[in-house]
Amino acid sequence: MSDKYPPESGRRRFVKGVVGSSALSAVAASSGMVLNTATSTQGVGGGSVEYVGIRNTDGPAPRGLPIVPLRTTDDGTLEGVWPEVETKTRRDGTEVKVAETEIGGFPYSSKWFQYCGVQTLPGAQPGADADNTLRVKGGYQWARPLETGSPVSVDDFDNYEEWGNGVGDDGIGMPLNVTWRNVEEGRALSVELLRSTEVSKMVAGEGEYGNLPGDVREFLDAATTEDCIAWLDKCTHFCCTPGFKSSDYPGAENAVYCQCHQSIYDPFTPVKQQFVALPRVD
Ligand code: FES
Questions:
Q1: Whose CA is nearest to atom 1 of ligand 1?
Q2: Is the dihedral of CA 6, 3, 208, 242 positive or negative?
Q3: Nearest CA to ligand 1 atom 3
Q4: What spatial distance separates the first Cα and last Cα of the chain, rounded to whole Å?
Q5: Among 13, 35, 71, 214, which has the minimal tally of Cβ within 10 Å of its Cβ?
Q6: Ligand 1 center–CA 58 separation, angstroms
């Protein structure tokens, strides 16, 4: 078992950088565009949305957990990608902020995270002055020496190729609970981050990963970095907090498990799905 704080090392940082940055900067300038967005007296910006998530494989959860696209800064800090924000005009003439872009050719928007009350968090509002740096929340024994709230670096996961915690197989990936879209006041979004050698295999379509749809792999290529993948840590059933390698429950040992009603999610079979996003508060 290798659940201990990884020593500093000179592990090579490959500079994948902001994959898909061209797509990120290619947001259409459409201030004059009329937007048919779902509205209600409580909020704006909900409606049907297609997203890429880690697949729900068992239990009552209706769908997968939405992936949080990642990038790495020059010093190895991990950030979640928030879509570009623009103001659009609704049919009734009022303006609304939307956050949407393309990542790896796939439409990505803040709607991906609008369920289970997350849509009311300040950081989930498109124009929020929020920090995209992933910050340590903890949750795993190996992470105890890391300071809560400090930026997460890929170097924190130096022994991810061997790490284990006595649940499932060693070497399948090293998880960490993090916060994203941190704001001055109010709760940030909770995200689970995983560094795993399986990530680059998924992107390359190696072995059984060749079954992943091409557009999903293209998205993963742009939304993962340095073998890291992340998803919103909010069960799509009744909103509990699941965890990777958190239980010996049959079938969940090497997956993401929600202890509330035994839903299981597989981070290694991302899928495209649809749901109806709830309106935001702004
Ligand atoms: S399985 Fe019910 S909340 Fe997760």
A1: 261
A2: negative
A3: 238
A4: 47
A5: 214
A6: 11
Whether residue 264 has pLDDT greater than 50: yes
Check residues 20 and 246 and name the one with the higher pLDDT: 246
Q: Using a pLDDT cut of 90, give the percent of the chain over it.
A: 78
- In whole angstroms, what is the distance from residue 229 CA to residue 194 CA? 5
**Ligand 1, closest atom to CA 240?**
3
Give which of 165, 64, 181 is closest to 125, Cα–Cα. Answer: 181
pLDDT at 217: 97
Task: Please report the sign of the dihedral spanned by the C-alpha atoms of residue 89, residue 94, residue 97, residue 99.
Answer: negative
Backbone angles phi, psi at 245, to 5 degrees: 50, 45
Residue of 137 and 40 predicted with greater confidence: 137
Expressed in percent and rounded to 5, the helix, strand and coil fractions of the chain are 15, 35, 50
Mean pLDDT for all residues in the chain:
87
Ligand 1 atom nearest 238 alpha carbon: 3
Angstrom distance (rounded) from CA 64 to CA 15 = 29
Q: Given the structure tokens 């916060």, which residue do they identify?
A: 179
212 alpha carbon – ligand 1 mean position (Å): 26
pLDDT digits (tens, 9 = 90+) for 193-235: 999 999 999 999 999 999 999 999 999 999 999 999 999 999 9
Pairing mode of beta strands 34-35, 85-90: parallel
Q: Ligand 1 pocket by C-beta < 6 Å: which residues?
A: 59-61, 235, 237-240, 258, 260-261, 263
pTM of the model: 0.85
Ligand 1 atom with minimal separation from the 263 CA: 1
For residue 60, give the ligand 1 atom closest to its CA.
1
- Give dist(CA 189, CA 181) in Å, integer: 6
